[in-house]
Amino acid sequence: MVKQNILVSHNQITVRSIPYDQEKQEWTERNLKDGMIWRYNYIVLDPLVDDSFGCWFLIDKSDKVVLEESAIRAALIPFEISNKQHFSINTVSESIILDNDTDANVNEEKAKGKYFPLKNMENLFFSNGKYDLLFEICLGIPDDSVNEEEVFYKFTFIPNEKPVFKVLKDDDYGWSSETTLNIENGNLENVNPIE
Predict the structure, then answer these.
(1) How far is the CA of 38 from the CAs of 21, 122, 159, in angstroms?
(2) 81-113: buried (b, 16+ CB within 10 Å) or exposed (e) per residue?
(3) What domain of life does the UniProt record list for this protein's source (predicted)?
(4) pTM
(5) E strands of 9-70, at which residues?
(6) DSSP readout, 111-171?
(7) Secondary structure letter of residue 22 according to DSSP
(8) Taking phi first (over 0 means left), then psi (-120 to 50 degrees means alpha), and beta for anything else, what does residue 2 get?
(9) What is the CA radius of gyration of the chain?
(10) What would the pLDDT profile of 83-109 be if each residue is shown by its tens digit?
(11) How far from 139 is each of 68, 70, 71, 143, 144, CA to CA, in Å?
């Protein structure tokens, strides 16, 4: 598992497997209502917390869905790693690069706000393909080094040839079992949104 403390700001977290594209991050009224912008390889998520703040991102790969007990928001979101060289989780100021780039100068990139956690990990590897992204916003203790409850985010990638969108936990911020995925901006073959 990757554990990275990162600065969140401007009310957005981006998960993508293609290069940064400002146009793909333009919020519409529907996106604001949805709480995210969805494209099969470019997702922009609302962190639900205003202002700028530091928090933990926990990133993993699994073969099953296991919910965090402290989750206040939890959903499966279809995602495709179409180019693992660009696979990353990003905030406005920092990026966690999830490709094992052996040529990256970690110290130079860290100074630019880019982290390469997989460079030193042999047990976590992502390949191109379709995934269910289990996205969770949690309020609890994310790490043994933390003494009090705080907001943290979990991103678990579950390989699935037929990814689904499904809210797993009704929340007080607008997501429920009735929430559907706006697929007019993206197209992922075999996506099964809630009807």
Answers:
(1) 13, 31, 18
(2) bbebebbbbbbbebbbbbbbbeebeeeebeeee
(3) Bacteria
(4) 0.91
(5) 13-16, 36-39, 42-45, 53-61
(6) HTTEE-GGGG-SS----SEEEEEEEEEEEE--STT--S-EEEEEEEEEE-SS-B-EEEE--
(7) G
(8) beta
(9) 16
(10) 999 999 999 999 999 998 778 898 999
(11) 10, 6, 6, 12, 15
Burial of 2 (0-12, 13-18, 19+ CB in 10 A): middle
Name the token pair of 48: 């639900």
How far is residue 31's CA from residue 55's CA, in Å, rounded to a whole number? 24
> How is residue 49 written in tokens?
């917390």
Q: What residue ranges define each of the domains in the chain, with the CATH number in brackets?
A: 2-189 (2.60.34.30)
In angstroms, rounded to a whole number, what is the distance separating the alpha carbons of residues 135 and 156? 7
Q: Measuring CA to CA, which residue among 53, 54, 31, 33 is closest to residue 43?
A: 31
Reported as a single tens digit per residue, the pLDDT across 13-45 is 999 999 999 999 998 888 888 889 999 999 999
